[in-house]
Each structure stands twice: as C-alpha cells, then as structure tokens.
Amino acid sequence: MTEQRRFAVITGASSGIGLELARQFGGEGYDLLICAEDDELARAAADLASTGVEVATVQADLATPEGVEALVAATVARGRDLDALVLNAGVGNGGAFLDIPLADEQRLIALNISSLVHLAKRLLPAMVARGSGGLLITASIASTMPGPYYATYAASKAFGLSFAEAIRYELKDTGVTVTALMPGPTDTEFFERADMEDTTVGESKKDDPAEVARHGFAAFLAGKDHVVGGSMINKLQTASANLLPDPVKAAAHARLTKPESD
Fold first, then answer.
1. pTM here?
2. DSSP letter string over 146-211?
3. Which among 44, 81, 218, 236 has most CB atoms closer than 10 A?
4. In b/e form, how buried is each residue of 182-200, taking b as 16+ CB within 10 angstroms?
C-alpha cells in the first residue's frame, strides 16, 4: 500500500506556509518527509499525523551543507520514488544593509540560495531519470523588485524565481515540472524573526498561509511555471512591477520595509 502512495519532501515545514503546504500534500494522499531546524517540527508532525498522513521528520539546519546532506540521506533512506520536492525553507533580515551583521547575511544566503541549489542538484536527477515528479520553490513577490531594508532577502528570492524558471526550461521535456510560488506578506513568523515588526508591511494586514499554500499546491498540480499566492493585491503589485523602472520600484518598496525608528 505504501508503495502506491506518492511521496513529498517539504522544507521549512514546522510552521507557516511550509506547514500549510504539508497539509495540502498530505490531504491529497502524499506521504511526507518534513524538515526544519526548530523544535516546532515535532508538533507539526504530530498534527499532520493526527489526520492520517504518514509523516517522517528530519530536524536539520539547512543553512549548513551537513544539514542538507542529512535531509538527502533521509530521503534516499526512505527507498521511495520522490514525487514532490518542496523547497520552502527561508529566512529574512530586516534593516539597513550596512547595519546587518555579515554573519546574518551569510546565513541567509546559505539557506535561501545555497541549500536550494544543493537540494535540487542532489534530488532532481532521480526524478529526471524516472521521468516524473515536480519541484515547488517558494519565492516571493519581493523577487520582482529591489527590496531596500531587506536587500539580501529580496535578492535571494529573485534568485529563487530565476532559478526555478531556468531549470524549468531545461527540464521541459523530461516529465519533471518546476513551479515557483510567489507569496506576498503572509501571516507567519517571518516578520518577527526578520526583525521587521516595526515596518509598514510588518504592521499591515497579511494573507492566510493556508490560502497561499492552496494556490501553490494547485499550481504545482497543474504544472504551472509560477503563481502569485494570496490576495489580489499581490497580483496587482506584481503586474505593476513589470511596468515600472527599478528606482521607482525600490522607492515604493522602501516605504513598506523601512523601520519606523529610522
């Protein structure tokens, strides 16, 4: 029976959009291997298992090569065909670029960019060899414009979107799909962890992570290249970003992300 079920690996799945994506995949008959570095992972797994989903966990720091390889090893050890690889883990750093410690920026790059490439490089080849499966990458509407006051985060999400679209093209004849999910401001722990609660966007109304996850999962199943998750405002903002010059977009973005204390 287990071999007939589909199998998904989801990172950053202890809370927020990642946990809601796990609910979506689990509700549609996927067995899950979820990964996060924090202690909330066990509670998330218990919550998912209570709905009848088969769920395993890997508590690992994906900002380190060792953490990434621990997840790869656990995935391979399951002895299952991987049907869905969901790369959702990420972190933000709020504030002026010159004020943020270099170590914090390096950790962001390691998690948001390096782990993305590392996991895709290690786990996609088996999908391609089999001729089926899909990759879902959580990017952001921030990927469409310069992001003052969380510059490295916005740039990392631009990388994620570009990376997804590029490898999607390379894999277009393999049977493996690649989809980018682009949420706007969402009601998760992101703003607290990124020290962005004292910003206009941090204090604003945010989207329900369950709604964002539904949009992402539907786009994944449909094999779409990307989807803007959440409210219509996100879609309008993304559309306008395609029309405005970068300096104008940067100024508009800064009004949302600049700390009120500055």
1. 0.95
2. --TTSHHHHHHHHHHHHHHHHHHHHTTTTTEEEEEEEE-SBSSSHHHHTT-TTSHHHHS--B-HHH
3. 44
4. bbbbbbbebbeebbbeebe
Q: Which amino acid is residue 77, in one-letter code?
A: A
| pLDDT tens string 107-147 | 999 999 999 999 999 999 999 999 999 999 999 999 999 99
CA distance 23 to 36: 15
CA distance 239 to 45: 37
Structure tokens given for 165: 């679209």
Give the active site residue among 30, 150, 153, 169: 153
Distance between CA atoms of residues 171 and 179, nearest Å: 12
What are the DSSP E strand ranges found in 37-77?
A: 55-59
Q: Which amino acid is at 25?
A: F
Class of domain 2-257: alpha beta
Rounded to 5 degrees, φ, ψ at 180 are -105, 125
Sequence spans of domains, the chain: 2-257
* 169 given a catalytic annotation: no
Place of tokens 């405005």: 244
| Short-list 4, 33, 5, 37, CA closest to 21 | 33
